[in-house]
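User: Show me a protein chain along with its predicted structure.
Assistant: Here is one chain, sequence first, then structure tokens.
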Amino acid sequence: MPYHYLENIATADTAFEASGTTLEEVFTAAADALLNTMTEDVDGIRPEESLEFELENAELDLLLFDVLNELVFLKDAKRLLLRIQSLYFSQETGMHRAKVIARGERIDPAKHRLLTDVKAVTLHRFSLKNDEHGWKACVVLDV
């Protein structure tokens, strides 16, 4: 599993660390950890609906922050549980851009065992780092 939950990071919040050998892998792992915080069976989310969005930020770590918060927003606004299917990164004029294609399905309490309602991704202890082993992100969720 490319992510694990962290204990004793923040009270009344949930924290996880996601990793990947590529930027795409760490973004996807972080998105899956976020989804797994909200529902028990991430692999049971069927790709019934597809959604595409693009975000940009001058800072790469804040681009991850924005992508994760967009997934929380889509859960709240459109009642969708989404998994990242593909990511395309680009950079021009000092801005990092991510084109995200996510697939999933509408929340159905009869089908999805909901665990925690994530309100937002926080900047508390938020980080995205790259070293010789790949990428690692630390994320704290406001629940």
